Amino acid sequence: MLENLTHIGTVSAPFGVKGAVKLYTIGDPHNFLALERVVLEGRGPLRVQVAEAHGPAVMYKFLGVDSREGAELLKNLKVYAYDAELPPLEDDEYYHHQLVGLPVLSPEGEDLGRVKSVIELGYGDLLECSQGFKTYLVPLQAPYVQIKRGEAIVLDAPEGLIE
Question: What is the share, in percent, of the chain residues with pLDDT greater than 90?
């Protein structure tokens, strides 16, 4: 995992012929329009010249990427933002890195371990939780998971999920 960086999405394809790319984001694409720079997997930081929302995606035009061919080289690369540059979110929103390390509790308050990581699958993310030597995966969705921002994850697991 990259230190002080949050995975915000993956470049899906070039956008037009002048070097722009389409990025499907993790969460609301509008959260990432004001970023001045991002970090591309294996490429390092790039300056954002233009950012526009396009449905569930963001179109980014990077400084120094001026052709469709250049944009094609960025296809399928993960895109990260510096944690300190991420915009604040509403009370019911969170970035994945904010969940790692949180305690996991049953609805009755029983300790079920801690969040070890968030596995991003694109179609539905999973919480990887651990308790002692036991590790289990939980769909990051209601009704199984309720997030008490910065405090804990309340897990109402179906029977057999964590046994």
Answer: 40
